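Usage

Read records sequentially. Each one opens with the input sequence:
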Amino acid sequence: MPQPHIDVRHIANLARLELSDEEIAGFQPQLDAILGYVDSLSALDVSGIEPTAHPTVVAAPMRDDTPGSSLPTEALLRNAPDQAQGQVRVPRVVADA
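and closes with the structure output:
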């Protein structure tokens, strides 16, 4: 499979970046190396590997502020300066259209 190539000038133009010829000459081999690495990764057989969003299990433990309570929102509502119908009220930030 041929190694992919992306022109640095084209990417710089899309990103609205002004690069000098020296910068382009420096970035082009780096971009080609990154694309070559990605191409080598795509050749790997990952058919038996389950996709993940994160390499390790991420848990967000919630502190139980109220004994016997399983709802962490109770602590938020208890400390909210303004609330109504079990929800925190905030000032309007969008003007009427």
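Summary fields computed downstream for this record:
- The longest strand covers residues 83-84.
- The two ends are 55 Å apart (CA to CA).
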